[in-house]
Amino acid sequence: MTSMGPAGGSTCLIIFARQVRASISTRAQQQQQQQQHATFYEFRTYCVRPEQNAAFLALTNAQIDLRTVHSELLGYWSVEYGALNQVFHIWKYDSYAQRAGVRAALAQDPQWIEQYISKAMPMLTSQDNEVTYLVPWCKVERPPKEGVYELATFQMRPGGPTVWGQAFQAAVSTHASPGHSHLVGVFHSEFGRLNRVHALWWYESPDQRAASRQQAHGDARVVAAVRESSTFLESQCNKLLVPTPFSPLK
């Protein structure tokens, strides 16, 4: 076997670096093309004054139709574990132009303002929103029946899905494919905290979730995939969500 001298080694390293950069660039372009003009999902989290929590949910239940005539509501939940006195909802839009039109229409809708906004806003302490896309390898999978949801949020290292996407996909897929959990969707942040990924899971009950997690922790495939993905992870958190009576996702 012919040995490679310093010059040859340097040449190979340069060629390899160019190939890596080209591969990353190509994947980034593909992702941008997939997201361009694509459907996106707005995540909204409202913190409700503790003494107003029941009143806020009752008001929203009574008046939500004033809002859903303008755009599609994917789901609306109360946070049971992971935070207190919060509601979380997801809205679907076909484009940024559509969302701008919806917001303009709502601002001019006297019923929405008088019957809901003027009453609901004093009940809140804060509002937060985030624009997300479904990751290219995932679509929204509605659950088979009513249950509870887990929103697991992962803060990944900078670099985007071109860096950690493959490992993250493997970790999620191993949880979902053997039937440990029902995956509703995986969403990647576009506006808000960057390099953040949300996995939305469905379970029949909190106890069924606990049993599924215990089973997954004993699956060698899950353990190996999670270990690989965790090398790109900065932090994570989760919330257990209970659907409201008016939530499309139950």
UniProtKB/TrEMBL annotation:
List the GO biological process terms.
mitophagy
- GO CC annotation: what is one? mitochondrion
Any one Pfam family here would be NIPSNAP
Q: Where is the NIPSNAP domain?
A: 41-139, 149-248
List the PANTHER family. Answer: NIPSNAP-RELATED, PROTEIN NIPSNAP HOMOLOG 3B
What is stated as this protein's family in its record?
Belongs to the NipSnap family.
| Protein name according to UniProt | NIPSNAP domain-containing protein
* Origin species: Aldrovandia affinis
